[in-house]
């Protein structure tokens, strides 16, 4: 499984990269056929505090799963996007009859 993290317009600290990798790797417990994870972290140019955006794409056979979240920190945005992906995985498993 390949974890690719892109940061747009800033350089992420190693602690943030490790946090993101650790959180997304947990999704493998819910779905065993994940080919790769593609994470994009970016800062929005808005005036609000909620200007950190995390986009997570799970590359799986069939249709990929996508989630995006905006929060005051990258850690919060990542956690929220992962929660959304967990709900998508549960919905997909129910639909496909896992």
Defining key terms:
98 residues, alpha+beta, Double Stranded RNA Binding Domain, 4-stranded mixed sheet, 2 helices, 4 strands, Ribosome-associated translation inhibitor RaiA, RHF/RaiA, RHF-like
What would you say this structure looks like, in words?
The chain has 98 residues and is an alpha+beta fold. The protein has a single domain, classed as Ribosome hibernation promotion factor-like (Double Stranded RNA Binding Domain, 2-Layer Sandwich). Helices cover 36% and strands 31% of the residues. It is built from two helices and four strands, in the order βαβββα. It has helices at 14-25, 74-96; strands spanning 2-8, 36-43, 52-59, 65-71. The chain has a four-stranded mixed sheet with strand order 1-2-3-4, with helices on one face. A hairpin with a 5-residue loop joins β3 and β4 (65-71). α1 runs parallel beside α2. It starts with a strand and ends with a helix. The mean pLDDT is 92.
Give a quick summary of the entry.
The chain has helices spanning 14-25, 74-96; strands spanning 2-8, 36-43, 52-59, 65-71. It has 98 residues and is an alpha+beta fold.
Taking pLDDT < 50 over at least 5 consecutive residues as the criterion, the unreliable ranges are none
Structural class designation: alpha+beta
Which architecture does the CATH hierarchy give at level 2?
Answer: 2-Layer Sandwich
Summarize the biggest pleated sheet. Answer: 4 strands, mixed
Q: How many strands appear in the DSSP assignment?
A: 4
Give the DSSP E fraction (strand runs of 2 or more residues): 25-35%
Distance between the termini: 21 Å
What fold name stands as the CATH topology? Double Stranded RNA Binding Domain
Average pLDDT score: 92
The CATH homologous superfamily: Ribosome hibernation promotion factor-like
Number of individual domains: 1
Number of helices: 2
Helix content: 25-40%
Q: Going across the biggest sheet, name each strand in turn.
A: 1-2-3-4
Which geometry do the CA atoms define?
globular
Radius of gyration: 14 Å
Q: Topology as H/E string?
A: EHEEEH
CATH class: Alpha Beta
Protein name: Ribosome-associated translation inhibitor RaiA
InterPro entries: RHF-like, RHF/RaiA
Pfam family, one: Ribosomal_S30AE
Organism: Flavihumibacter fluminis
């Amino acid at each position: 499984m390949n974890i690719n993290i892109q940061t747009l317009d800033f350089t992420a600290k190693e602690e943030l990269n490790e946090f993101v990798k650790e959180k997304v790797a947990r999704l493998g417990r819910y779905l065993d056929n994940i080919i790769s994870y593609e994470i994009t972290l970016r800062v929005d140019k808005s005036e609000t505090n909620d200007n950190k955006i995390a986009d997570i794409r799970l590359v799986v056979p069939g249709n990929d799963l996508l989630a995006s979240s905006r929060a005051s920190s990258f850690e919060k945005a990542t956690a929220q996007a992962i929660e959304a992906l967990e709900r998508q995985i549960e919905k997909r498993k129910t639909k496909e009859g896992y």
